[in-house]
Automatic annotation (TrEMBL):
It comes from the Bacteria. InterPro entries: Sf6_terminase. It holds the Pfam family Sf6_terminase. This is Uncharacterized protein. It comes from Paraburkholderia phenoliruptrix. Gene3D superfamilies: Homeodomain-like.
Length: 126
């Protein structure tokens, strides 16, 4: 797996204060997780296994479900962690859209009612 070296952090140490260095280090950590995700996704060495018969004759190849599931869990864990460390860059984007009937614009209606109050002296016949 690819790993970033500490020399990549040298310019950050020289130019920024502690809070900026921490933020940049967290971004670098999320980027490293993304790099690891690509390595895991591209690694298919154990995805297939050879099936053998009773007399050890090759019957063909089959998916190694355990290795595939383990890779999926490793990817999901890194994806979740990268999303928590750098949500703007690696977090899930949630979009909400509000629309009216048939996808059209919303219409607002304002209704004002004039109601006569009982006991109002202006409404009584004198």
């Amino acid at each position: 797996m690819s790993r970033r070296t500490s020399s990549a952090m040298t310019p950050i140490r020289r130019t920024c204060g502690p809070s900026h260095r921490y933020a940049r280090a967290r971004e670098a950590q999320a980027d490293t997780l993304a790099d690891e995700m690509l390595d895991i996704a591209d690694d298919g060495r154990n995805d297939w296994m050879e099936r053998l018969g009773r007399d050890d004759t090759p019957l063909g190849w089959t998916v190694n479900g355990e290795a595939v599931q383990r890779s999926r869990i490793r990817l999901d864990a890194r994806k979740w962690l990268a999303g928590k460390i750098a949500p703007k860059k690696y977090g899930e984007k949630i979009m909400q859209e509000v629309s009216g009937p048939d996808g059209g614009a919303l219409q607002t209606v304002t209704r004002i009612e004039m109601v006569a109050m009982s006991g109002d002296s202006s409404n009584s016949a004198a």
